[in-house]
From TrEMBL:
It comes from Scleropages formosus (Asian bonytongue). This is Nidogen-1. Its main location: secreted. The lineage of its organism: Eukaryota, Metazoa, Chordata, Craniata, Vertebrata. It holds the Pfam family NIDO. Keywords: Basement membrane, Calcium, Cell adhesion, Disulfide bond, EGF-like domain, Extracellular matrix, Glycoprotein, Repeat, Secreted, Signal, Sulfation.
Length: 1222
């Protein structure tokens, strides 16, 4: 073909730097525009009309060039190209190479489009890229742009002898824009647009290149392989325009021609992940990947949502596979499980260059191999190298996509959060919710899935019942496979996105469900985030919903799966009337398969999912919605029990079909047994050295994990722990020299630096802080006495007066609370009066107070309809304000619960045990029959509570329940040690619950709150709550009952550093007295020795374990020289305490005062509360152990009888309160 020319003027380049990650980014539709054309064929160029001038310097002559050529080989030239350029770079002519190589556009393989575009929309988008790249310059407004697009070009035929795989194509774009005084080049690279990295030129493999060349004026003096860099680099520049895949350069200015200026924004803005280009961050202990993982779009359905086309003269440029004509909408944000075969690498630094042009190569292409992927495959997969890169393949006995692999037959769990903004019925106001817990469980060997979503209000819950597929995607993922078919997880793994559009009939209400699946976490749970937006038809409260069995056909494409179906459901109202309704369900699943595998994993076009035994229920009491369903993938089920699910294999076993109806049960990998019953294999105990030096082994059901100890991290092989030198946060490590935490705080400032600052109420340099005497005139009420305290002060009304010290009044009338004064002041300040007293003016806020005068947790404005949450001082809690018609959820803690079909608690074997807390889990250590020896090899976690910090534990020997406090919620919960879900007990009016005790006779529990400075009591179900003590407490923590002596005494420790003490009282709060106050430091843990009737404590300040006889005051030292104990318990003759410094459970013989053993959990981190779980309750009786002592509500024992007390805020007139009597 000839070489048509285009009249333009262009400026040339001096240097480009940085790696260009590939993404589907803003794209300018290419074909058919004003001054447009297309070309294809052998090394072809295309004529075009004369274009407006572009400013350029450094070409064959300074200033204006008159010839511009568009070439199918991926570049534009300032003059007619010569034939030698492919083998003799630098070429003798000036050029801009977008992605140059020996490319093929013959026989309709690929096309090159170009056009001149001056439409306002296009110019605005070009300007956005330029202005974003040069934020310090004045904003530019281009007046015209040249757009060149190379679409689906292949390497030339001669290159298909092994250099690249057939079918790989490149798509990329160059935009040259100009103002009156400057010109710019914008290069755009789609994520999957560059699929091969080199071409054959004259029998030699040459890398695809991008860059700027001057031509005759300044030849490229160093065009060599040194200009290209492989994937491994320490300088990772991802853009120069602030947006991945977009690179901007100023290529000329007038009247002074200067060197080209690259864009100045090499960092990505925080909002970039919101646009679908999120980067996953590596955990701190792991080696950071050389290349971040980007959100990508599959090749088949990208959305080239960039420069819009001119509606009348341009056709939409849709990046399609050959032969596809329809435009397919993109789907958001699947996570990239495989690296692109073509990576672009930054230069290590700027090259020296003359004033005008220097030959600079921006990038070369390479692909990752198994040797360089480090640990990107699943630990249960093998890595294989292919021509274009690597792929991961699950090993026998496992299934998945290689990035995520799970054991065949093993039950699977899914956890996540649900947020949304949903209108119900004709309501004009939406119901908004955020971060509600979603838990799901699948028995993989029969395809039964269970889903539970918590904290769904009654106004929404019933209307969500028809949407069983909301969590049913896990049913598809782990559906029971029929012969010749694969479930979803086998194909897509654990990282994909799902979007469903639901249209309800006949009302045409529409709801959108968006879900992002983020793979398998450290607990081997699939993680998902769900978002709901739209409107639902109302299902009245009290109604039930029935969903008949249905089938759904999944259509499989290239990295995309679609389904569409019409479903019926029946609503039965509480009066018995039934209504049959339907909805249209349309969903799309987008994922990323390995692009290098020579044998496609999916070789079928469609599979049928059969769903039956659908169960839906809304629990209004617990605000919990549950779904359950059975799932099978494939055609009609075979009669073999393995394919019907009626086989009786253990839930941790795979069913292996035989001839006819014969089958065998085989325990999943990581389990042992006969298949009917399977037991977890403790790899850590059986293979103690499995994790290597400087690593600990953490056994988990069916598997194990290796973790490096402190100051070590995994090396490049992902297995060897290597020493690392990290900055020390002395504030967190406790190695600073600031004053004690009651007087100063340590502030970490980065590196190993910190500063000390005195707390309010103290003065000094932070290392030494002195108390400020706040008792100045006017601090307290005139009828009150001010008492200075360390860091604060207190006010107390004088005798004969009542109040809080800030307001005192005489007489017997109770002093008004802060809330009551606020409310009454607002009413008195109003000028409107009615027949019943003052009324608020329109627009005035009047707070609401409870029966005790405290602020109600939820406050609402009567005029605007807005509601919000407040703290106990009436201050609005940021982020809780809700619009009219919506109630915020105040003082609600989301329980860490899942469906009852899958317990979070592993049942304990018979015998006695120690239970101790370690961050987000509770573990047990069995004791031998003597109670003196730890069976350390059998220790394991019995309860996992991710993202929680468990502080104290207590045991109810009657119902075999463990109770615990946690401070992240905060909340108090319980769970049966015989198996079952965690059950929330107390979820409101808690700030820092740190100690808990159970009275197994009176069926009550007691706890301390070190922030509210109270001790409270309640029934074991959380009802009948009452404050026992709210005075003279500073930092109450440990609390116990004397269960052996009949649970009539209560003991607690207050670790107030200025006046630590141990106190006691009767159970009803009477007869309170200080038991120990001398020679104490930080009394953290308390326990009762039933053999000696002594109270014992562990002190982190004096570093001692001591005991005292409460009745006589005799005190003895058991052990000294301990490090930092947190909690302590008795069993037999031994004391067991947890230690923060040693990260261990320490065993002490209380009779000889000597340490005899210790137990270190596999995961070394702080241990918190500890208690003993007895086989049987110790024999004891008190007045509350029979018929609740005859009390209507709380029965609290005393040595002489019991007190019948009413709970706080009691509104039940039947509550009868009696003081202690015999």
């Amino acid at each position: 073909m000839g070489t048509p020319k285009i009249e333009i003027s262009l400026k040339c380049s001096t240097r480009l730097k940085g790696r260009m990650p590939h993404l589907i980014i803003d794209w300018l539709p290419s074909p058919q525009g004003k001054t447009s054309g297309s070309c294809y064929g052998e090394d072809s160029v295309t004529p075009a009309e004369t274009l407006p001038p572009y400013i350029c310097s450094g070409t064959a002559h300074e200033g204006i060039t008159s010839v511009f050529t568009i070439n199918t080989n991926g570049f534009v030239a300032m003059e007619e190209p010569t034939a030698e350029y492919q083998n003799n770079m630098p070429a003798s002519f000036g050029m801009i190479a977008a992605a140059m190589g020996n490319l093929d556009t013959s026989n309709g393989v690929g096309k090159v489009y170009f056009r001149q575009d001056a439409s306002p929309t296009t110019l605005r988008q070009v300007a956005d890229h330029i202005n974003r790249a040069f934020p310090e310059d004045d904003e530019v407004e281009p007046i015209h742009a040249l757009v060149v697009t190379w679409e689906n070009v292949e390497p030339h035929e001669s290159s298909r002898r092994g250099d690249v795989l057939d079918g790989k194509r490149n798509t990329f774009q160059l935009v040259v824009a100009s103002t009156e005084t400057a010109s710019y080049a914008v290069l755009l690279y789609p994520r999957d647009g560059l699929q091969f990295h080199s071409t054959l030129v004259g029998g030699t493999s040459k890398p695809i290149v991008a860059g700027f060349n001057q031509g005759h004026m300044m030849p490229w003096s160093s065009w060599s392989q040194d200009s290209f860099y492989n994937l491994i680099s320490t300088n990772e520049v991802q853009t120069n325009s602030g947006k991945r895949g977009v690179w901007v350069y100023e290529i000329g200015t007038s009247p002074y021609f200067s060197a080209i200026a690259p864009g100045e924004v090499t960092d990505l803005p925080p909002e970039a992940p919101q646009e679908g280009h999120a980067v996953e961050e590596a955990e701190e202990v792991e080696t950071v990947s050389e290349f971040p993982v980007y959100k990508v779009y599959p090749q088949e359905v990208p959305q080239l949502s960039g420069f819009p086309e001119e509606p009348e003269e341009t056709q939409p440029a849709v990046y399609q596979e050959p032969g596809r004509t329809e435009k397919i909408a993109a789907h958001p944000d699947p996570v990239e499980p495989y690296p692109a075969p073509n990576r672009i690498q930054p230069l290590l630094g700027p090259f020296p260059c003359p004033p005008c042009i220097s030959p600079i190569s921006v990038f070369s292409y390479n692909y990752e191999t198994c040797a360089t992927t480090r640990h990107k495959c699943s630990s249960f997969a093998d890595c294989r190298d292919y021509t274009g890169g690597y792929c991961c393949h699950c090993r026998p006995g496992f299934y998945g996509n290689g990035k995520d692999c799970v054991a065949e037959g093993k039950p699977q769990r899914m956890n996540g959060k649900v947020s949304g903004k949903v209108f119900v019925g004709d309501s004009p106001a939406p119901l908004e919710f955020s971060n509600n817990d979603l838990h799901s469980y699948v028995v993989a060997n029969d395809g039964r899935a269970y889903i539970a979503i918590s904290t769904i209000p009654p106004s929404l819950g019933p209307s969500l019942l028809p949407l069983s597929s909301l969590g049913g995607v896990i049913g598809w993922a782990f559906a029971l496979e029929q012969p010749g078919y694969e479930n979803g997880f086998s194909i897509v793994g654990g990282e994909f996105t799902r979007q469903a559009e639901v249209t309800f009939l006949p009302g045409d209400e529409k709801l959108t469900i968006k879900q992002e699946f983020r793979g398998i976490d450290e607990h081997d749970h699939l993680v998902v985030n769900t978002e709901l937006q739209g409107r639902l038809p109302e299902v009245p409260q009290g109604s039930t919903v029935q969903i008949e069995p249905y089938t759904e056909v999944y259509q499989y494409g290239n990295n995309v799966i679609t389904t569409s179906s019409l479903r019926d459901y029946t609503v039965t109202l509480d009066n018995g009337v039934t209504q049959t309704k339907s909805f249209h369900w349309k969903q799309t699943i987008v994922y990323q398969s390995c692009p290098h595998d020579e044998i496609p994993k999916v070789d079928y076009q469609a599979q049928q999912l059969s769903v039956d035994q659908v169960f839906v229920m809304y629990d209004a009491t617990n605000q919990l919605i549950r779904y359950a369903m059975s799932n099978k993938i494939g055609g009609e089920p075979e009669q073999n029990p393995c394919f019907t699910g009626r086989h009786g294999c253990d839930t941790n076993a795979a069913c292996r079909p035989g001839q006819g109806n014969q089958f065998t049960c085989e325990c999943a990998t990581g389990f042992t047994g006969d298949g009917r019953t399977c037991y977890d294999i403790d790899e850590c105990r059986e293979m103690p050295q499995i994790c290597g030096p400087h690593a600990i082994c953490n056994n988990q059901p069916g598997t194990f994990r290796c973790e490096c100890v402190d100051s070590f991290q995994f090396g490049s092989d992902g297995q060897t722990c290597i020493k690392v030198d990290r900055p020390i946060d002395h504030c967190q490590a406790g190695t600073h020299n600031c004053d004690i935490i009651q007087r100063a705080r340590c502030i970490y400032t980065g590196g190993s630096s910190f500063i000390c600052s005195c707390l309010p109420g103290f003065e000094g340099d932070g290392r030494i802080c002195q108390d400020i005497d706040e008792c100045q005139p006017g601090r307290c009420h005139q009828d009150a006495v001010c008492s200075n305290t360390p860091g604060s002060f207190s006010c107390q009304c004088r005798p004969g007066f009542h109040g809080d010290g800030f307001h005192c009044s005489s007489g017997s009338e109770r002093e008004k609370t802060q809330c009551e004064r606020h409310r009454d002041g607002a009413l008195v300040g109003s000028s409107a009066f009615g027949p019943r007293g003052p009324r608020p003016l329109p627009g005035q806020f009047i707070p609401t107070c409870d029966a005790l005068g405290n602020y109600e947790p939820t406050q609402c404005h009567s005029s605007t309809g807005h509601c919000w949450c407040v703290d106990r001082n009436g201050q609005e809690i940021p982020g809780t304000r809700a619009g009219p018609g919506t109630q915020p959820m105040c003082n609600v803690v989301l329980p860490p619960v899942g469906p009852t079909t899958r317990p979070d608690v592993s049942p304990l074997p018979p015998g006695s045990h120690l239970l101790f807390a370690q961050s987000g889990k509770i573990e047990h250590i069995p004791l031998d029959t003597t109670g003196l020896t730890l069976k350390k090899s059998e220790a394991k976690a019995v309860l996992h509570i991710p993202d929680k910090v468990v502080i104290a534990v207590a045991y109810d020997c009657v119902e075999k329940m463990v109770y615990w406090t946690e401070i992240t919620g905060p909340s108090i919960s319980k769970a049966s040690l015989q198996g079952g879900d965690p059950i929330p007990v107390i979820q409101s009016d808690l700030e820092s619950p740190e100690g808990i005790a159970v009275d197994h006779l009176g069926r009550t529990m007691f706890w301390t709150d070190s922030m509210r400075d109270v001790i409270e009591v309640a029934s074991l179900d959380g009802s009948q709550r009452r404050v026992l003590f709210n005075t003279d407490l500073v930092n109450p923590r440990a609390i116990i009952t004397d269960s052996v002596n009949g649970c009539v005494y209560l003991y607690w420790a207050d670790w107030n550093r200025d006046a630590p003490k141990i106190e006691t009282s009767y159970m009803d709060g009477t007869n309170r007295r200080v038991l120990v106050k001398d020679d104490l430091g930080l009394p953290n843990g308390l326990t009762y020795d039933p053999q000696t009737s002594q109270l014992c404590w562990a002190d982190a300040g004096t570093h001692k374990v001591e005991c005292i006889t409460p009745s006589t005051g005799n005190r003895r030292k058991v052990l000294d020289g301990i490090q930092y104990p947190f909690d302590i318990t008795f069993y037999g003759r031994n004391l067991y305490y947890t230690d923060w410094r040693r990260d261990a459970v320490i065993v002490v013989d209380s009779q000889v005062g000597k340490e005899t053993d210790e137990f270190r959990p596999q995961k070394q981190s702080r241990l918190y509360g500890i208690t003993a779980a007895y086989t049987q309750c110790p024999y004891a009786q008190n007045y509350c152990s029979v018929n609740n002592g005859g009390c209507t509500h709380l029965c609290l024992a005393t040595p002489a009888g019991r007190s019948c007390l009413c709970p706080d805020n009691a509104v039940d007139v039947r509550c009868v309160q009696r003081e202690s009597q015999s």
